[in-house]
Queue: 2 jobs
Job 1
Amino acid sequence: MILVTGATGTVGGYLVRALCKEGAPVRALVSSPERADVLRGYDCGTAVGRYEDPRAMHQALQDVDRVFLVSPASARSAELEGAVLDAVRRAGGAHVVKLAAAGVDQPDRDGRFLEQHRAVVAQLDGLPHTVLAPHGFLQNLVGSAAAVQERGELPSLVGPAAMSFIDARDVAAVAAHVLSGTGHDGATYTLTGPRAVTYADIAAALSERLGREVRAVDITPQEYRTQAEGQDPWVVEGLLELSEVYRSGGASVVTDEVQRATGSPGLTLENFLDDHLSAFR
């Protein structure tokens, strides 16, 4: 049995679908009965509970031998995921596939997101485990849809730097491969898209598909803070830290891990835009 935490999140949702399509035994962990309703129609069981609730985690882990571990970015990520790992150990152990971020295995890279991920990875010691470390998701571009619609602008914090964005569907496909197979214990896989693109490239691809001009526009950190007012300040500052890494070329590397796991080079920027164009119209 595979337990998928974050089962209604971006990667977790795609992963549940992929595993169900394969006919794998899946149990989806959700935080409330209302969230479980999102999964109606999928051939999977559900467990309701929060990571820090030992009783709920004990029930969720019954007969489980594989766990996909992810939590929303926050200052408590390591604490919450650590609670899941404590429950896994109490239940007798399982192979844990931890969703982290590119750079988690590079000591010279810093930032609050990586610090949280590294704290969780350290807690994996003694458990069979695999770490998936993707670059930024193409799905995050949808957050700029309103600016594209209203002003024909694609805001960017990274200047002309190229980034090997990955489609979250490919991250889920690799996770499904690892959770369903063997030979991945102790591995860390850096996951990227099939090529690196700039925000100017993204704007040009949008312009072609929308039939109107979309321009990549640089914004300052303070402008971003103003636009992100009302969001978790810890996450906002973390994203600004990450943008500095991206601006310096830290996300331009392209790996073949998606190809090796799935047999496909992965979804391109164009594939993503064709599938999500309605968000930008």
Job 2
Amino acid sequence: MRLVTLNCNGIRAADKKGLRDFLANLAADVVCLQEVRATTAQVPAWANEPQAFWLPAVKSGYSGVGVVTSQMVKKVQPGIGDPQVDGEGRVQRLDFADWTLINAYFPSGSAGEHRQTAKYYFLKQFRHYIQRILATQPRLLVCGDFNIAHHPIDLKNWKSNQTTSGFLPEERQWLTDFSSLGFVDVVRTLAGADAAVYSWWSQRAGSRQRDVGWRLDYQWASPALAAGAVAFQIPRLPVFSDHAPVVVDYRWT
């Protein structure tokens, strides 16, 4: 089973950059998209094949998540049941035959204190949401754009970014606490503890070409699912947005 997560920074813009052909060549079974920035009616027709589930934000052209999959889906739950979070189109749950997927787009706090406050609120509510799911479903995979780099190895210039949103001590501690719920950072496990692996680059000063990046996009899996992860890739080209796709292959028994 091949699972892809990508912050596409507007699916219509990414479509013009060749996203359709790229995903077709990957032959992914599940594609999780964040920052879709489109209503369901505005999503390109190809992205609804073979089946797709979308959760747009109330605000036009903002946020939004979606999952495209060839796998049989038993149930879909849009949102976490919190109006403040759900109005921004940030989280969706899909239940498959014997596992559950959460596709999430965490807020960024870089726009100012008000957005950082909204991010902390989201983190608190999201943790509670995941804890409720784990109480009845231990086979859980949480993926998406977390907008947090966990450890110094997860960004190139960590020393100069210790007071930057996305690498604040409180955010990093939240990720540590989140992992303690029983999740495995799949890409970090496959890459090794000392590997510099990034999924986001500033669009200034040739950051992507020089690989001066951050790892903001994750696939966190419960141990039984993480044990089946066999390979990953984060292709820097082609460029669809300031993020790159995070692709993981799983073999589950």
